[in-house]
Amino acid sequence: MRDLFTLSVLVSTVAAGIRLATPYLLAALGETIGQRSGVLNLGVDGVMLLSAFGSYYVVLRTENLWYGFLAGAVIGLLMGVVYGVITVVFEAEQGISGIGIFLFGLGFSDLLFEELVGTPTPLKVRLEEVAIPGLGSIPYVGDAIFQHNPLTYLAFALVPIVTLVLFKTTFGMNVRAVGENPQAADSLGVSVAGVRFIAILIGNTMAGLAGMALSLGLGIFQPNLTQGLGFIAVALVYFGAWRSRGVMVGALLYGIVASLVLQLKTRGIIPLEASDLGAMAPAVLTIVALVVLARRIEAPAALARPFSRH
Amino acid sequence: MRRVVGTRVLGGVVPLGAALVAFLFGAVMILALGANPLDGLVAMVDGAFGTPDRLATTMVRAAPLLLVGAGITVAFRSRVVNIGGEGQIVIGALLGTAIALTIPDTPKILLLPIVLLAGMVGGAFWGAIPGVLKAYAAVNEILSTIMLNLVAIQVMNVLLRGPMIDPAELEGSRIPQTQRLTDNAALPILVPGTRFHLGIVIAIAAALTVWVVLWRTPLGFRLRAVGYNPDAARASGISVERSIVTAMAISGSLSGLAGAVLVFGSESLRMVTDGSSVGFTGSAGFNGIVAALFGGLHPLWTIPSSFLFGSLLTGANNLQRALQIPAPLAIALNGIIVIFVVSSGRVRHLIEDRMLREKGGLPHSHETTDDVAVTGEV
């Protein structure tokens, strides 16, 4: 037990926690924008799987991370177009259509993997950690916080950016307006459909980045790589009360709990069998948080309600 | 509430049309994978219905979908979105399996009903949790059921790797599975030489029972009243909270029964996991939702609908054997079908409006008695 509390173990636990938080954070920030506009997207996990496979496959074939990056983002964007058509144009029930997207992503990424790759093959190139000049060489703190791959930096940089966009720009104001009171926004000449569609595109592209962060970070893909991570990301939005800082705290909590369990396991402090119990912790934590928060936080009033002008 | 005959027919035609479009997508995917879609169709039909044994296997695959689907109709009709079928299946199966491991020498006539009942109890318990959380703590049930799915899978992993593991596996490869369970708990085979077992009959009986309960009992009336308009239901003295918990418990009990049927109807007669979320259930918790939606959230229509999706699963397995097209195609197709069916509601309304206007009838009537407002209340 004692060697758990040395500084170097602590540093590596925090560093791993930040790394593990990255896909949660990217997906949950995207979902925050979507939900703020009144659109619930339960298909995040499916989009992540598709992008995770797509970027993995492109890098496997080209050995060029930029192409992989492009593939992951474009797949997310395309799935955004699909989801926008389903929920904005056809005004379909959002909870269920999200499950449809999830099943499609789960099945289709598995299908493509078995058809095109077959056995999990590690990538020759994967996202490398980059030390931020200067900051990266601060003892301990530098190793824990400023030694990460570019997508991790991007995810955390997006936290204030999402807040700025939502609260300081016209677009953000429109997003919140159509999420709270689409009829009023519509009567003021805001295109509810247009704003929601763009919010969906942004959200899905970020889910795509999250999937890519997962597969390119690990350097490998296997069927159902996400293991429900995308669903937890959706819950994190509630956890964070639709604010990017709250979402970040939630994602970090998840990442650090996960990395702590990993540490305890590899150091033999808890038996291997108990690691499943550790894997259970995030979901239990979320349920508890939902119970505590449910009556205190206010969701966007029009969340998951399709808007129809007639 | 008034309807013309045309819209009644339309209610069935539009989802069918949506499914056809989805299957066209499937054909395109088969084509893209370098095979002839017609060959694919032949392989799938052959795989699902080609021999009595295959037909029986199709029904075996359909049974859990029907059980979950029948439960889903109860939940959705009561305006509770139960996405927790996966977890409820797992907990039901675990409880039934644990009992079969504890009292293996009980006579079959007692043990079989006990383990099936245990499945229902386990599922009902796991379903009631999000019900209580929704009714009394305002926790969104979509989120809580999804979280409880993740928890259930880890509970299964812990139990099957530890306390419930086959003692022979402890020295061996440590595959997370139980020993072969007692034959006293096995679902009897009804058609010798095939896998057609009692679970299929149970599933059909369950769907019929759900129909009776929903439309012929005061309980069903209360549930549907809450689903149709919770405020009006409350005003007329119905406890909305209790109805939500009841609906979730019934829905969960049927998923739990599906879990027991999966274990005690399996050829290996053991509970086994690959540690992943889809290993044990084969995504039946999600596919059951698909079957129920496709059946118009009607328990009786869910019977043929489950059979259709069961045949899709067995057909896809044959597709893999015959044409080397990976079987996950079936899951992807299910997703596409869901998307098309839920999107078709608006298409249906547009066509209905036009038909009604041409008849000089109601200018704007979006209300039909069968419409259920399944909104993701958050």
Tell me what you see in this structure.
The complex is a heterodimer of chains A (310) and B (378). In chain A, strands 1-2 form a two-stranded antiparallel sheet. Chain A is globular and about 65 Å long. Chain A has helices at residues 7-36, 44-62, 65-89, 94-116, 141-145, 150-168, 170-180, 182-187, 192-218, 229-239, 244-266, 275-293; strands at residues 130-131, 147-148. The model of chain A has no long low-confidence stretch (mean pLDDT 89). Chain A is built from twelve helices and two strands; from the N terminus they run ααααβαβααααααα. Chain A has a single domain (2-293), classed as ABC transporter involved in vitamin B12 uptake, BtuC (Orthogonal Bundle), CATH 1.10.3470. In chain A, helix 2 packs across helix 9 and helix 11 (244-266) packs antiparallel against helix 12. Chain A is mainly alpha-helical. Chain A starts with 6 loop residues before the first helix and ends in a 17-residue tail after the last helix. With 378 residues, chain B is mostly helical. Chain B has a domain at 63-307: ABC transporter involved in vitamin B12 uptake, BtuC (Orthogonal Bundle), CATH 1.10.3470. Chain B is built from 14 helices and no strands. In chain B, helix 12 packs parallel to helix 14 (329-358). The chains are: A mainly alpha (310), B mainly alpha (378).
